[in-house]
């Protein structure tokens, strides 16, 4: 009789419904109180950090695409934007990297293949209207235009670029200028002229350090120099 009652009680307990546990996103329902439990602060901070990081990454990617579009479209760059490239000559023009250098900047007359530059200026139709030039390599150099024999080279009238070594790192024949001055571009510091061509030693002191254009004339086998103009930039680039 007792066993029968225990069996009936067990059946009744099995048929009774149990409390349910509901889950809705980040909310949990307490089965006893039916009150909503909020997301913890730690979880919220984690979500905020994730969202902010995603936005910053998207902004960086967008900025990169914008720069790429400006570059491909040939749009105008800010005047502080620097271009870097090695010098070459192409059809009578000075080219740095893939861009032709144009304008009235005085350095355009004295650049040669073998130099590496930093250039600033306005970009127009794939060319740069140059406002500033810095020669990054060679660090010390000079330019000479005059009789080849004065610097120990064969030939008649030449243009040559020197970097302080025994000979030029670039030279080329030039139209003879028997009545014209000899041109020398060099940088002066308090300790003297830098990277001069062999055999030249101007006995002249400029009023300040920096780049100078000198003009010389030959009299009785000796070159007499004068300061013709100063050029922008400092020694060493």
List strands and helices in order, with pairings.
Blueprint: H1 2-15, E1 23-24, E2 27-29, E3 36-37, H2 41-73, E4 82-90, E5 93-96, E6 99-102, E7 116-124, E8 127-137, E9 142-147, E10 157-162, E11 168-173, E12 182-189, E13 192-194, E14 210-219, E15 222-231
Short key terms for the protein model shown above:
237 residues; alpha+beta; 7-stranded antiparallel beta sheet; 5-stranded mixed barrel
Q: How much helix is in the residues?
A: 10-25%
SSE order, one letter for each helix or strand: HEEEHEEEEEEEEEEEE
Shape: globular
**What is the average per-residue confidence, as pLDDT, rounded to a whole number?**
76
Strand content: 35-45%
- Cα-atom Rg, whole angstroms? 39 Å
Number of helices: 2
What does this entry look like structurally?
- The radius of gyration is 39 Å and the shape is globular.
- By secondary structure, it is an alpha+beta fold.
- 20% of the residues lie in helices and 39% in strands.
- Among the domains are: 82-134, no CATH class; 142-231, no CATH class.
- It starts with a helix and ends in a 6-residue tail after the last strand.
- The strands form three sheets. Strands 9, 10, 11, 12, 13, 14 and 15 form a seven-stranded antiparallel beta sheet that branches. It has a five-stranded mixed beta barrel with strand order 4-5-6-8-7. It has a three-stranded antiparallel beta sheet with strand order 1-2-3, with no helix packed on it.
- The chain has two helices and 15 strands.
- The longest helix has 33 residues, at 41-73.
- It has helices at residues 2-15, 41-73; strands spanning 23-24, 27-29, 36-37, 82-90, 93-96, 99-102, 116-124, 127-137, 142-147, 157-162, 168-173, 182-189, 192-194, 210-219, 222-231.
- The model is unreliable at 18-73 (pLDDT under 50).
């Amino acid at each position: 009789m007792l066993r029968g009652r225990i069996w009936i009680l067990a059946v009744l307990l099995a048929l009774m419904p149990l409390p349910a546990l509901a889950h809705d996103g980040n909310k949990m329902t307490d089965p006893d109180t039916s009150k909503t439990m909020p997301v913890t602060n730690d979880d919220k901070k984690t979500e905020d950090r994730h969202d902010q990081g995603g936005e910053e990454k998207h902004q960086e990617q967008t900025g990169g695409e914008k720069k790429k579009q400006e570059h491909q479209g040939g749009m105008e760059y800010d005047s502080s934007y620097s271009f870097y490239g090695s010098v070459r000559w192409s059809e009578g023009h000075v080219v740095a990297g893939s861009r032709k250098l144009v304008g009235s900047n005085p350095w355009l007359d004295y650049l040669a293949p073998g130099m590496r530059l930093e250039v600033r200026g306005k970009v127009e139709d794939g060319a740069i209207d140059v406002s500033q030039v810095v020669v990054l390599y060679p660090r010390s150099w000079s330019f000479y235009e005059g009789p080849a024999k004065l610097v120990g080279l064969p030939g008649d009238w030449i243009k040559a670029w020197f970097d302080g070594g025994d000979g030029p790192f670039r030279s080329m024949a030039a139209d003879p200028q028997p009545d014209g001055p000899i041109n020398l571009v060099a940088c002066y510091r308090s300790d003297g002229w830098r990277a001069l061509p062999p055999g030249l030693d101007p006995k002249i002191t400029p009023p300040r350090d920096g780049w100078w254009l000198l003009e010389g004339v030959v009299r009785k086998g000796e070159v007499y120099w004068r300061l013709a103009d100063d050029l922008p930039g400092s020694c060493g680039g």
